[in-house]
Amino acid sequence: MGMTITEKILAEHAGKERVDPGENIWVDVDILMTHDVCGPGTIGIFEREFGKDANVWNRDRVVIIPDHYIFTANEQAHRNIEILRSFVKKHGLKYYYDPDFLQSEGMPSPYADPTRTSYKGVCHIALPEEGHTRPGEILLGTDSHTCTAGAFGQFATGIGNTDAGFVLGTGKTWLKVPPTMRFVFEGELPPYMMAKDMILAIIGDIGVDGGTYRAMHFDGDGVHRLTMEDRMTLCNMVIEAGGKNGVVEADELTRQYVQERTARAGTPQNMRFHKNDPDAQFIFEKVYNLDKLEPMVAKPHSPDNKATVSEVKGTKLTRAYIGSCTGGKISDFVAAAQLLKGEEVRIPTFVVPASTEVDAALDTEKLDGKSLREVFRDAGAIIGPASCAACLGGPADTLGRLNSPEEVCISATNRNFPGRMGNKQAQVYLASPLTVAASAIRGVITDPRELVGSFV
Amino acid sequence: MEKSIRGKAFVIGNNIDTDQIIPAEHLVYNPSDPEERKMFGRYALCGVPPADSGLPEGNIPFVRENEYRSDYQIVIGGKNFGCGSSREHAPLAMAEAGARVVIAEFFARIFFRNCINGGYLIPYETPESLMEKVATGDDVEVDLEGNRLVNHTRGTETALTPLGEVLPILEAGNVFEYARKAGMLE
Ligand code: SF4
Q1: Alpha-carbon distance A300 to A416, whole Å?
Q2: What is the pLDDT of residue A195?
Q3: Do B31 and A48 make contact, defined as CB atoms within 8 angstroms?
Q4: In this predicted complex, what is the ipTM?
Q5: Among A177, A279, A292, B24, which residue carries the largest CB count within 10 Å?
Q6: pTM to 2 decimals?
Q7: From the list B80, B85, B118, which residue is nearest A162 (CB)?
Q8: Which residue is closest in CA terms to ligand 1's atom 4?
Q9: What are chain A's domains?
């Protein structure tokens, strides 16, 4: 019997010829990532178990990316950055992206120039940008959306602090080999749709637990025509279906992206390309035709509470939010800008780039001679510095946080369980950046197709 | 591990995600600091919307305001318990508040793993929903040897799915102790 990509990567890292779904195996980890929310707990467990003087298993394979609670006056949040800093220094860790503008007290004033700070922003976007994602590798991170990196043909999944503390000391972890679900997309994504609509359709179909303990493979010409960023959107939300990892087979586009980024960052360039064997077994298969899909939302309060945008159009909104590792990449802002150009938003609209690289691109990417930043500013949007910001609510002074129960927000983020973006009564509709932009212009949920003429 | 754990039940619904178990605004505390760690107990399950907290009646907080420990030791949920983020603060918060066992129809993967590897809670799955069989406040006992839940208030018994392959890690205490016993760590 043949193996899937996920099985092949796991077998290789377990030093085995083959592995089968359900088997528990010990694997060697290539990269461990942590951030400011889970880093201090991970470090505490590492020191408790291995001793204060123990060395990390490999100082070039630990990547620390502060991103969650940066723009807040919260003292403990600042203190957590200090813990990361001193750990990095003590162990001589090579890959750490410091928020160098942080003062010890008060709300920090953001970096003045996104191209001149060591800070990178949201970990799942910074990882590929800084050359830490490679086909064939195993990447573990103390964040559930670590699955995003499956877009690069690797095995990537989220773990807790204890597991991360174990990896930090040993470079190993135990994993149960997941069976693979296969989602095939045929055809071409119409211009009013985005990868976000594809993954919302899947989650709506299989439910927030439909992928539990499973790998989710995205396949078909419709997927391989997507940009790396769109593939990341697909894999990012695998966890919203309970999935263990998402995967897209690495192709020429992947190779180019990884080569460019690793060369720039000076990180290792080794890549291993895997394919599903022709007789690989899938536990589930579903084929989607992209011509038949429609713009989608997830209604409050669950990512699988699916509706088409046309079913909920006209729903009154109080706020719009474009950002996060799901919807804060440059391609997301290019899409939103197409609609916002020359328009004015009717409701408070937040634009939060995921990374400082994306932030810098808001100035360099142009639309009819205007930079994206100008487009958003002229439309009346509030542009924030790169961070997780209101995607997960965060401390009360977080930009864009839903602090009142009356808020009804349309958001390009990934989760809308009660309280995710702040107040537990506030309502959050998840949608593509295009749908969020269209809705911001009208102040009610709006199908991007209604703003025709915007698509050329 | 002891043979049984007896305590009061706290019942909540399906898809209790990690933001409901411990809302993100409280993640600023460092679990490695003993004083700050207590704060997780104080806020455990505080993100569950009031109507869904302490079923079937609702409006029962898991931890009373300004307290750090809960009256309930056995948490009973429905499907997909612990979905959402990978934050280990979730099982840790429930354990800090005094919970010992969490029972659900099934768990989200990372939460389940964190319960076991960190040794915070015993996560039992049930072949059938317990929502109709247990009410918040019932005096219940988890029989770890017989894999059953005995409801002393109602005089009923329900089978729990045996812990199986993760039992050795729970018995060892956590994944580190397990790996030491297995000779994988010095
Ligand atoms: S942007 Fe949101 S989903 Fe992504 S890492 Fe940050 S908090 Fe998590």
Answers
A1: 6
A2: 98
A3: no
A4: 0.96
A5: B24
A6: 0.97
A7: B118
A8: A325
A9: 5-285 (3.30.499.10), 298-455 (3.30.499.10)
